[in-house]
Amino acid sequence: MACKSSNRTKQVLTYDQVERLDHVLIEPIQVHGRGNFPTLEIQLLDLVDIVQEKLESEGVKVDSIRLNGGAASFVLSSDPNRTPFNDLDLIFRVDLSAPRNLNIIREVVLESLLNFLPEGVRKERMSHCVLQEAYVDKMFKVTDKDRWSLISLSNNMGKNVELKFVDEMRRQFEFSVDSFQIILDSLLNFYKVTDIYMNEHFYPTVYGESLYGDFTEALSHLNQRLIATRCPEEIRGGGLLKYCKLLALNYEPASMKQIKIFERYMCSRFFIDFKDLNQQQQKLETYLQMHFQGDNVTKHKYLLILRRVVDSSTVCLMGHERRQILHLISEMAAEIDRLIAYEQHQQSLVAFHPYIPTYTYEKGCVYSAKSYIPPQHYFPYKLHGNKQVNTGSK
After folding, report:
1. What is the per-residue pLDDT across 34-43, written as a single tens digit (0 to 9) for each?
2. Cα separation, 269 vs 149, whole angstroms
3. What range does the domain containing 93 cover?
4. If you placed Cys at 235, which of 13, 57, 58, 239 could pair as Cys (CB 3.0 to 4.6 Å)?
């Protein structure tokens, strides 16, 4: 896990990989509005074109555009059971040395959303503040040492579209399997200059890059589901949560000898970045909501793994602090376990009798029964045991 550099950081994508990339870029995705704001149907390809054109018209040059994170790993993986991705991460390499550029970027992204509003919506009423409140899940900027900003567009299923505008960022990955960036510029130009559909004999040259170092090594980790990293002391606190997620998805450490050192680094950094129990709980709840939407079985497995890692590798906490975080994780796991048992019970009841009403369950409470009509049985024939009433005369 020592820090090393490599000259073999890039590789040309195969046709199958470019085809998957094309599918990711043109597949419609939804950006959900809060309250009564309409849902936007967006293709990444269209969004990228509009944002790039508007930025350059405002004097902000875009040096390159890249697909990052889980979506890039999904495109590159040769595993037929490849891990589905959550967020769609796009990186725009831009110059942020001028403070005004950050404001321009915010305005451009929000104005770009106007292009995807349904017909009939009065766009002149959609100010920047209204659009941000309606469609932006989170937005922040970093100007201390690093220079970058993030605008995340909301999706109720946890599949947010994250637009990251980067000038300088020292650490852009946590593990080798999420260190990939796919450079989109050649593919975007291909769409603009030809109407011919791609095939295995005619498609653009697209490069992928691994910020981990050796591209081939990182790709082998991805295909074999192995966990490895470089300079673990540089990974921000959230890396602990990502590490345990990989374990829950049946990834294994590439080096069992070094993994205990790595876990101690991750635990120490997590508790440095999230100092009190409230911060730790908020971070964990947000992570569970974003990455385990509708998958309580994996969520429960994840929490058990997280508790084991924290219990075995945390050396920086006082005794009562250690007991607090372990108790918190145990309570969250027990709550999910109760929810799983309840859902299984409901499924068995519905399978036995489809007219059983369904309820929702949250934080130990059962509530919100859905209205239903009891079955109406009609018997056209006389039932055994019923007395027949004679209404006629003798």
Report:
1. 998 999 999 9
2. 23
3. 1-228
4. 239
